[in-house]
Amino acid sequence: MYEITVDGGFSATHRLSFADGTVEPLHGHDWKVAVRLSAEALDRDGMVVDFATVRARLEEITARLHHTYLNDHPWFEGVSPTAERVARAIFDRLSPEAGLGPKVRGVTVTEAPGCRARYVPS
User: Which of 118, 7, 120, 27 is CA-nearest to residue 69?
Assistant: First the structure.
């Protein structure tokens, strides 16, 4: 199995709402994103996927999150924009992309040093 990881990032603010009714104060993060892709065999160019292809798509996705208030972003309508949900939102927008879909194995987001969440489909 071959595996690659492509990193990106964006800056955004959010407030988490908890089941007990408490709401965090507004705060922001410089989010880091890591996309993991894998394949049993390399393509005809000797790659899992060209890094540039993945990076371009990831930048398109993160540009839609950059400098936003995630609570008002349509991708998180009706839910608290946790790191776990951010990872899933990015995964969902990467996986249908032609040529990437079945190779995207997971997305990890880091919202603060030492605090990561990963979405991996079952």
Answer: 27
Q: Based on the structure, what is the number of domains in the chain?
A: 1
Residue 32 sits in a domain whose CATH number is 3.30.479.10
Angstrom distances, CA of residue 107 to CA of 27, 72, 95, 100: 22, 22, 10, 13
Closest CA to 31 of 92, 77, 82, 105: 82
Degrees, nearest 5: CA angle 103-104-105: 105
Distance CA 110, CA 7 (A): 11
Q: What is the pLDDT of residues 30-49, one digit of tens each?
A: 999 999 999 999 999 999 99
pLDDT in tens, 90-114: 999 998 776 777 799 999 999 999 9
